[in-house]
Amino acid sequence: MNQLRLDPMSGRWVVVSTVRSDRPAAFVTRTPTVQEDTSRPCPFCPGNEEASPPALETYGPSGSWLVRVVPNLYPAFEGDEPFVVTNRGPVFTQATAGGIHEVLILSPEHDASWSMLSDEQTGLVMAALRDRIEEHSQLPNLRYSQAIVNSGREAGASLDHPHGQLLGMSFVPRELAEEQARFARFAGSCLLCTTVDAEESEGHRVIFADDRVVVVCPFWSATPYEMLAIPRCHSPHLYRSPTEDLVSVGRALKGCLRQLKDQVGDVAYNIVFHSAPYRVNEPFHWHVHIWPKVTSRAGFEMGTGVAINIVAPEQAAEQLRVVVPAG
Fold first, then answer.
1. CB 275, CB 236: distance < 8 Å
2. What integer pLDDT is reported at residue 35 of this predicted model?
3. CATH for 51-320, among 3.40.50.300, 3.30.428.10, 3.40.50.200, 2.60.40.420?
4. pTM value?
5. Does position 21 have pLDDT exceeding 70, yes or no?
6. Within 13 Å of residue 143, how many CA atoms lie on the same side as its CB?
7. pLDDT tens digit string along 259-269?
């Protein structure tokens, strides 16, 4: 039976319609990304460091690197201008696009992905995210950092080498502002602390849980196999969280993405880290969205803002559940 489910983090309705998964070719697997210039070696592989700007941070033993952060050659945001809005006519409003755009190279291995990284490697990636966001937070013209990983061409990646992006912005984007507003309006304690308690009580949408982090296919999943990683320790800011939480989140993402690949196939996905704006504390609880790209948005979704999910999150969780080794 089809259902409407309300996403309390965005205020949007989601249609859960499992019968639509019976359509031919309902799911898509990723296609290889193609470099525009195939004669050029991968700029993110060891030995090709001169193909990108000098590193802002490197992590690993002396003389080599395991994780590397470099400026983006094609930045969406750059410069130290403050956020200034200008009205150029009755319907023409523009603003300065100052900020920072960086590339986070997840591994020296060209064919790795987050699901293939070691626990040590995922810990280094999470440490790099923490360090760079903390660095951004010290700049007076910036208000918010968005960390993302796009894996696969369908998810927006232009290179196969595993990498993420960090964008420091002089404004708070609408999606994050709407989440903040939903946290503020939620009756009771923290929205996501309550979600952890409720999901663990019901049990059938939890796919990973340890003493530091819980990962669920949320009740309001808008896309098939959507996942939400929630640290148990309440904190608005990723970069102020205990190292143990960051390590656990990185490890949990690895396990869940490995299950996704094993159970669904080699699909593209987006990982999106949501942390409170630097100078905002409560109410917020940092978290990680994982959105696999197994279906595409059509006219209804774009025209109404209402997503249609053809895999119930309860079914998705049954497939993706990760068994945590004892001890």
1. yes
2. 47
3. 3.30.428.10
4. 0.92
5. no
6. 12
7. 999 999 999 99
